[in-house]
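Re: the request from the purification team.
They wanted to know what the chain is likely to look like in 3D before they choose a buffer screen. I agreed to run a prediction and write the result into the notebook, where they can find it.
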Amino acid sequence: MSIYETLGRIDAELALGHGEEPQRALTDLIRNMSRPVLEEWRVDLQARIDRFQRKRHLELQQLLDERTGVQPANYAERTDAMVRERPAVAEDLYSEVDAADSDFNDALRTLGEKHIFQWATSYTQSLSHHFNCYLPLLQSELAGEAAHSIQRQLEEHTRAIFTQGYKYGQEQGLTQEILTQKSIGGLASLLDLPLEYYLQRANYSHAREETVSLRSLLSAGSRGILRGYTSLRLGDMDGATLLGRFPNRWAYQLAFLSADAIEDIVTQLPDGSLKAGLETAALPLADCLDSLMSRPRETYFPLPLFGQFSWEHRRLDIGVRSPSAWGSDRLIYARAHLAEAFVSERDLDEAAARRLALVLAPLKPDVAHRVRSSDQFGRIVIEVGDADRSEVAERATELLARRIYKLRSKIEGARSITYNVARDFPLHIPGKSPFYHVRRTSVRDVLARFDRKNGVRLWCSVRRSGKTTACFDLDATPGGSVIVSQTCGTEQTTNGRVFYDGVRRAIESRTQLRATFVNSVVRDCAPLSVDPANRTVLVIDEYETLFGHLGSAAESEPAIRYTVAQPLLNQMVEFARDNLLVLLGQQPGAHFILMDQNQLAPYVKQDPFPLFEHHLKTGEFSQLVDKVLRDQISVDTGFVDALHTETAGHPFLTVNVLCGLVDWLIEQKRPARGITLDDGDFAQFRAEKLGLEQVSLGRDYDFFRETAKAAMAETSYRHNPWLYTAYWLVRQIAQADSERFAIPRDDLPDVMKKIPAPGVLPEMSEMLRTATQANFLSYTDTAVFVKVRTLGRLAASVRPALA
């Protein structure tokens, strides 16, 4: 066997987490190589040695040093010196590091063999457990060893699973483009796991040891994952090239990492504008944060809590925790621009208006002139490009330290709120930054009830309820079934519209739908390395669009009924016999098409869909509020309770209400720090700003005002009598009682009769049941309520377009 083949076999064994066999093979190889051949292959041999755990690493290193001319005595002296330099406790610590390393290795091997790519379930649980074990070690004298262990293990694991997934996809006949999209999507999901762990603990980490160790853990984990990915070969492309092609999928991570981790990652990237921009602007910013994090005799450490990257704007935004003296833990923001062509005076004006503390940017001559002649810009903008990295970092540290000092002074505390941070929440941006995501355990719990059941489930809810985001966050059920999410609306993720686009093309081309269409979509869109024989949950979002398109196409051109519509319905039934099909939408009944031969309709069962649950201080709704206000405005549990009563956990309307609330605080000139909003504040805001006249004018409610107006129009009745009835019920109840948003249940028949319908309305009890499941209403034995009070206010405030 050649040296090349032997090293390949060793790589394969190491990727599986084995130690004894690859050590024996590498030992034999080193012993059998002549001195000149050893020198020729030393770099490759060293790379393999560095992948072993400590004890095996030391044994192999000693052998290689001896065989290449390093005297055994010298090696022994070096080892003895290491022992002499260790603190007395270090020997026990080495055992703990070795144990953590071994346990992590075993866990990653199990994940790779039994739970590969199950990010939201198995990976989340396993990584959280082992990160908990590493954190104390990262606060010890062996922090470097512990960080290296995390990095090395995740680097190996990343390389192994994505190589395995790519090869499996090739065997399944997937195209290079599909494999590429699956691979980069999987990388983004894996990277989010250490970041989520970090963010969950960052708010409770304030001491130097806690903040430094937490950032070190994330830096090691992300560094390892990205290093492992850059070394991949995916057909005619490598992992590093893919990182360069899709920076939005991973570069936000750089906001949280140490400078040495960023430098190592950037070094792996292909030459180009991304690499150059990160080197000139992002690295000095990270140097600045490193410097402030390591200052002696300090009680405040600017731990990064927010990161966002936009390749379209060529910039990286970072938010770090401000001094605890701020009271409401406001974030301090900094920005790194990567290219001068994307930096205008308007961008700098916007940064100044938002009171960013620091902007690092390469500047065009005209913009540079404006900066040099402006005292305001001079306090926040540093020009990069030809400047020395250390000088830029030193200047950045000076400016950021000056801002921190001001935030700790009493004078700064007298300033009032001037910026509406709630409007920064990206409501209208599909695939928003992971920083804004809230893991919907309530949705996972609903899915878990059907973990071993096949069939078709229908989940309906008011528009913008978070259905799409929640389901696209899922990748597997607790029982191990694979989740494949597809949408018929705006694409949330790569390959997210394969199902609908395939149906649309078949209709437009008037061709026969493939007999394997549904199974092919599942195969193409499932995570890498998933066996097609596995049980699958196929989620189809915006299902009304799919069935509406099928029905209208079949009506206008009858042949499509037999070439596309009927075959698709039959395939969906066949799929649901052995798997689970979940339809997502706003209202029930959209699947009732071609009813004389619709085999799917009898299988569909509707379930209630949960809005953001609110039962704990750290629950879904509280997390959403924290992410909207981004720790810049402090609220207590009474305030959150009152807000939830108003919006019922509807995410879009919750953000709308919070935008109005912050505008109200600005009008009142409330201080920027030292306040905590309570239920009394919310009651005052509600009385002043949530009346029918106020919400009819508020700019944040435009979307739902128009939605309600259209739903209650006469044309809506002709196309969708259910939605027409639901909105009219919400309107009638809200107008009858604008305090409790309730009517006696016995009054419901009279309320239904008052709806100005041009024809027959849905049956009352069926309407009550399905509208409750879809979060329009709720009811008890004695009363019927508007579920989302803000929606009731909006429906009551608009003028329906009646003929």
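For the purification team: Residues 71-89, 325-329 have pLDDT under 50 and may be disordered.
Please add any questions underneath this entry.
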